[in-house]
Write a structure and sequence with these properties.
The structure is a homodimer. The first copy, chain A, is mostly helical. Chain A contains five helices and no strands. The interface between A and B is medium-sized, with 23 and 20 residues. The first copy, chain A, binds a DNA duplex through helix 3.
DNA sequence: TCTTATACCGGTATTAGTATCACGGACATG
DNA sequence: CATGTCCGTGATACTAATACCGGTATAAGA
């Protein structure tokens, strides 16, 4: 095996990541945000639903810019290990 | 066309990005930083040399954590310019 | 009811990221 | 001088991300 298949932990992290993005999107439509970020709506949907658990850095950066969220907070919030204490929905 | 091939602008951005990472690495060795970030040294080398212009988000996040740099600064610094006048909505 | 818009889902195609393998150079040590 | 180790590099293999297409479901509006 040359390229390590995504581990269940990575997929879980992808789901958290997608949930974060979806929450940040709020009531705006997918196509709206996707267009603002310069990615296709399908890609945004896959990221939000966790079907693309490890998106490209600049894709995330564009989405974060479109959603006006911090990359650092985003990266920190989706790490499962870091939430040992805060279990509420407002952990982000 | 199903998957947009990387544009020259994206490749340039990747080179800038790699240069930033290499500068942030300083005198530390590749294997050192790569191990700290949990990626292979070859991957780090490719990113640094710009041969992997659009690395995965979490790969970048891990490297940024290992190098102790901000993701937001990293994402902003690697944009050539294109933000002189009418910016705000990214380059769609 | 019918139409429209949004989101979800499956499959498909193609490019790109990542890891392993193998090689050459630098440096230290025997 | 030979050898082992570390570092960087090139080539190769394989999985994943991205985009496009079709279909489906639900809700709002004419």
């Amino acid at each position: 095996m040359v390229r390590t298949p995504l581990t269940p932990w990575e997929r879980q992290r992808g789901e958290r990541f997608g949930a974060l993005l979806r929450r940040a999107r709020g009531d705006r439509s997918m196509v709206e945000v996707a267009a603002a970020a310069g990615v296709s709506a399908e890609t945004l949907r896959k990221i939000e639903t966790g079907r693309a658990p490890t998106p490209a850095f600049f894709t995330v950066a564009a989405l974060a810019a479109a959603l006006d969220v911090s990359l650092d907070e985003l990266a920190f919030a989706c790490v499962p290990e870091a939430d040992a204490t805060a279990d509420g929905a407002l952990s982000a």
